[in-house]
Amino acid sequence: MSTSPAPIINLEFLPDWARQPSGHPPVSDSFEPPRKEGGRGTGRRDHRDQGRTPQRSSSREGGDRRRQREPYARTAPRPPAPPPIDIHVSFLPEARAFASVADQIKSSARTYPLFSLAKMFLEKPERYRAQLVSKSTPIFQCSLCDGLALNEAELVQHVLRKHRDNFYKEERVAVEPPKGNFTSVARCDLNGAILGPTNHHAYQASLMQLYKAQFSHLSFERFKNSIRTVHDPEAVKKWQEQSSSKNTYLCLQSAEPATLQSLSDLERHFREKHLETAAKSKKDMVVDGTVIMQSDAAGLKSAVRQSWEEENRFPLNLANRLRAQFSHLGLHIFKARKGMQFVGVARPKALVADVNNVSKNIFAILEFVKNHPGKNRKALLESLAPAGVNSTPTDADSSSPLLQDLHWLIRQGHVIEYHDGILETAKAPVPQKPAKAKTTAPATPAATP
Q1: I need a surface site. Which of 194, 263, 348, 387 has the fewest CB within 10 A?
Q2: Per-residue pLDDT averaged across 121-145, rounded?
Q3: Is residue 26, in this structure, part of any structural domain at all?
Q4: Residue 439 belongs to some domain of the structure
């Protein structure tokens, strides 16, 4: 199984449309309604129409308009939703994606909001892993591609559909064509497959083979509704030509050569000889998000999707996992900006400085950041660059004393540089008010008689 390259994560927190050029035309802020010829707006009635009663369209015309608005309402009903399954789903950051994010935080020394990072991991399947815990039946997984299934039958169909060439070689051999006078055949509207006359002895087997091979994700009732009988000589002739040969399957991994005559024989042989090595089952497993998205198990994908939507709405569980992993790497979690949780290289620590106990650059940086809220590094360097210098130092200029002092302040936690570039000085903790001592009221002396 090939390993995919480590995902590249952009920590600018910009939407995709802002990072890459879009092929869509720009949207105008103003809207002007279209006008008729002669300059009249569509929202106004012509004076010649005043006093007239608008004619109602007939029910037939109304039905035509409804069908135009909803062209698939009657002809293609949606398949029923898969039944709910008893599986608990939680999300974890993918290891390589997490390492990439942690390295960027350490190298840039910028501070990032924890919950925004959690949502960023949930944006793409290659950035997260899903932990699946079944409370009842085990979950099946293919040993060849990590594909998932909810039961043994699903897994057998998955392996025979995607990895059959690993176990069997398909060969086409000639057989005696069907005899009789046939005037109609059954045809599947989903893919155009011809199954033969409904009264033919091989019809039921062909019907089940087609369902298992291509449409097992649908209910069998939905699949049966797509089969219809057609009276077409060309379709009958095509079925007769197809029936003049059949597929046989040569076993590749058997000690003795054997040839299987049908798909039912193939499935039975696979269960007996290869299922134990081609599948594994557990009640608790962790899989990549891309594996979930490529799974054929509709019920499992539905359960993961529902859990993903709930977690993406408020990613508390994933944020807690990230907090523990960031702390393990030496990064710090703290609150700032109205109580939001952030992750950075240092915990904020206020520095009380004056011109007598710190260097000139340190004092100037702290004063600028304190007196100019909302400014970024570029504004600070432009303001504090020495007079007479033609160019302002940049991040690439590691020899600049001003930049070196700024980096020191950031990594010591005296200055916070947020993910959006805004600089802020660390605030001193607010002293807690001393708790008031509880005073007990003196006991009222008992009255003397």
Answers
A1: 387
A2: 91
A3: no
A4: no
